[in-house]
Inverse folding.
């Protein structure tokens, strides 16, 4: 273990998918939880694709049924996490024609009570989430792919930027691999003076080891929101290199 990991031993995955809710994922919530525990993580945040992304859930379902099905990956991961000593928290990845945001700090009950979320604009989403104490992070803002028609930035409607997405910069990645996407994201976060996060964007149990690391264990998803909004006292990694909370590489 490096000196950085000695100082920040509690590593959390902040961007991952389960096969229960994300059509692109290959492993269940239970399988993912076990893999992360074996890899030494303190916890994970499930961020499956919502109706605006590559969801597995039928968008024609009534709202209550849609939400109940959407959270199954998280619920299965949480059950397993409780058994094996892994923190498991709920979030989601919201899509707007290829532009995506990671939402943290809210739960199933909140989602059930806000069906207007399904038709919300980026601006309205930020208002809804912010009013309830949640966190909005712009996921991989500079990624270029066939499903992203154009790069759109919303600095006034995010609380932070995913500066490190391991699929871009980890040498084990076989998709979206271009470190320049991360360099641009870190520079963008600096320009708009917003904190950065890091995640693996994991869809299988072939883990990269990326995430956000803290000196002490989180006390819940609300604690994660608070610490990221503070923009200090944590480090991030793509699974191979470590960076401070501003995106400066650490050695």
């Amino acid at each position: 273990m490096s000196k950085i990991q000695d100082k920040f031993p509690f590593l959390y995955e902040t961007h991952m998918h389960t096969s229960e809710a994300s059509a692109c994922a290959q492993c269940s919530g239970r399988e993912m939880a076990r893999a992360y525990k074996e890899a030494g993580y303190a916890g994970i945040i499930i961020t499956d694709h919502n109706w605006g992304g590559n969801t597995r859930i039928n968008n024609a379902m009534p709202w209550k049924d849609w939400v109940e099905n959407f959270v199954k990956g998280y619920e299965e991961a949480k059950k397993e996490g409780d058994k094996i000593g892994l923190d498991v928290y709920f979030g989601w990845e919201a899509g707007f024609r290829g532009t995506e945001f990671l939402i943290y700090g809210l739960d199933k009950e909140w989602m059930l009570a806000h069906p207007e979320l399904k038709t919300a604009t980026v601006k309205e989403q930020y208002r809804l989430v912010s009013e309830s104490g949640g966190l909005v992070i712009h996921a991989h803002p500079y990624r270029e792919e066939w499903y992203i028609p154009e790069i759109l930035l919303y600095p006034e409607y995010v609380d932070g930027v995913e500066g490190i997405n391991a699929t871009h910069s980890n040498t084990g990645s076989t998709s979206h691999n271009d470190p320049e996407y991360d360099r641009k994201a870190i520079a963008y976060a600096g320009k708009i003076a917003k904190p950065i996060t890091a995640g693996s964007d994991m869809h299988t149990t072939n883990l990269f080891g990326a995430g956000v690391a803290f000196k002490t264990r989180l006390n819940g998803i609300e604690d994660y929101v608070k610490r990221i909004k503070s923009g200090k006292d944590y480090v991030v990694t793509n699974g191979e290199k470590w960076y401070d909370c501003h995106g400066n590489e650490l050695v």
In short: The CA atoms of residues 227 and 233 lie 8 Å apart.
